[in-house]
Amino acid sequence: MLVKRFDENPIISPQDVQPSRDDFEVVGAFNAGAIQFKNEVLLLLRVAERPKQIPAATALAPIFNPTSGNIDYFTVPHGTNTLELLDSRVFRFKGDIYLTSISHLRLARSTDGIHFTIDSQPAVVPTTEFETYGIEDPRISLIDGQYWITYKPVSKYGICTSLLKTTDFMNYERFPIIFCPENIDVVLFPQKFNDRYYALTRPVVRNIGPLAIWIADSQDMIHWGNHRPLMLPRPGTFDGGRIGASCVPIKTDYGWLEIYHGADEYNKYCLAAVMLDLNDPSKIISRSTTPFMHPSAPYEVKGFFGNVVFSCGAIMDSNNLITIYYGAADTCMAGAVITLGEILDHLKITESATASSLA
Amino acid sequence: MLVKRFDENPIISPQDVQPSRDDFEVVGAFNAGAIQFKNEVLLLLRVAERPKQIPAATALAPIFNPTSGNIDYFTVPHGTNTLELLDSRVFRFKGDIYLTSISHLRLARSTDGIHFTIDSQPAVVPTTEFETYGIEDPRISLIDGQYWITYKPVSKYGICTSLLKTTDFMNYERFPIIFCPENIDVVLFPQKFNDRYYALTRPVVRNIGPLAIWIADSQDMIHWGNHRPLMLPRPGTFDGGRIGASCVPIKTDYGWLEIYHGADEYNKYCLAAVMLDLNDPSKIISRSTTPFMHPSAPYEVKGFFGNVVFSCGAIMDSNNLITIYYGAADTCMAGAVITLGEILDHLKITESATASSLA
Lengths: 359, 359
What we know:
The structure is a homodimer.
Chain A: E1 4-5, E2 24-37, E3 40-51, E4 58-64, E5 71-77, E6 83-85, E7 90-93, E8 96-99, E9 102-110, E10 117-118, E11 134-143, E12 146-155, E13 158-159, E14 162-166, E15 173-174, E16 183-188, E17 197-203, E18 213-218, E19 224-231, E20 242-245, E21 250-252, E22 255-263, E23 269-276, E24 284-287, H1 298-301, E25 309-316, E26 321-328, E27 332-339, H2 340-346, H3 355-358
Antiparallel strand pairs in A: 1-27, 2-3, 3-9, 4-5, 6-7, 7-8, 9-10, 11-12, 12-13, 12-14, 14-15, 16-17, 17-18, 18-19, 20-22, 21-22, 22-23, 23-24, 25-26, 26-27
């Protein structure tokens, strides 16, 4: 294992987070976007909640009602013919998938990057008809002085990717759906290339094709095209089942460092890296052949959905120390550090090389 | 049944089409885009081919090789452990789907709209790495004097939607992938609205959501966003399984007439209609409650994949007579006529009404 986990892990647990309602309990505080903002590290947590009281032997899905503004409970008694209890996160009823919790976004703040104070109120809550099952997995990119946040709105219409913009982490502007279902794990590059924004995406194909990372471009951040596959899963390896972008790409002298996640056929989620060309991020310079981090700590192995390390944000400081904030077991937040030099070694990139000479 | 089928049906059969190679046979000539061009009706056929000689007890997929420019044969002996013969169109091997035929696009021309002369050579053939399994289901929109053709490039990377442009149906300009996998049944509206192009799309979701028709907009025809669902399947009805746009929308005094396809849970594909607001095609004025056409003729019920009527293009003449060209049973092309008045009756739109008063 290359990374050094925080001694303080997990740094944020569900019990640290005040529920958004008295009758709710927090079951997950995980998959946070991370950014340095003024003199603080901000984590924009995905907070998953469910009612404290769930009727015995009942599957329950909390669903936001955009008409009333309330969260309704959709319940199905266990033993119902068309009910399938799939795992802790989801059940299927009459062929449709429902989520057992509903997520919102919540800020946590820290001056040392380790000890966080969690806001008592949500930052962003489900609002539209496309967010009735919750909003999930924010990634924050600083582009030209504004913070653009991709996230997954989930509803009966599907799992999409949408967009928020903020300058102050107090007021958030909402944008339309930028990637129609199913498309997840979208990260925006923190700069334009030839007057185009770039994004990594993870189309969730149904019939043909691998669960791969694609790249697309845009002139306005809303309309995306020129889609093409960037990286494929490698069957038989740690990332043979599915891959997706995790952290917002980090600019280095050697290229864009993308920390991505790969899962094997048993849904064990690891973290790995790929270095992309500085001027053309559709070009791969080097990719991990092994994960640099896999679930092994107790809080990573067991939880709401175990055997998962899943990051939505990392921060590199001026000493090239990278702090990876990651969701563990779909339950809590943890942190780990790795140096850029260690990542370069792992990617077999010599520190004297430059991206352009390698490309 | 409201439509009147051509007496001459099927108007184009596989045996009418010259294979693109001597060692190939044509197994399907279907799902053609249709357009009036100069004094002719043009059908841009999807022509599906496979080798004449297939080794006994073997699953074979013809796959275009973009490096050599040849079509290679991928074969798996029947009885192989990880081989599943799914239906006539596809097999699965080691979890991946393969197609038993490979499609290109071919022009057929007619002065009366019924009797067609089929070009001896393809119009557009698989060329890129995203087209190795074929190119399928073209839809032709005339926009500002140019013909824009959406089609499905299929490869191991997935089933996408891409774009061709032509002014003469001799030279075709190819564009990048405009909708990443899986997204099919894309039709472009033949005009701009508030300086935006509009498209109907059919995201093929994997985990959550119905197989529904979505709408998106674009400023340049390449980059698409502002995705939102337009119409959902209606469980228990003829279109309860899946719906998708079929023909390019037809402008009428009453709104945009979209002839769409709906399939039930048994994969019986019917044709139905929806009228969309003239100024805002994301508004539905009226939608079929029953199909106006379902597979019943022998050539629709039996074929490569039976019980399918599937249109990619219809033409309305100056007398408001609509000729629907459609693929029957994934095998041949047929035609049927219906008047706009009959469609309006079917949609319970009174002829004296205007779209704006109904919207």
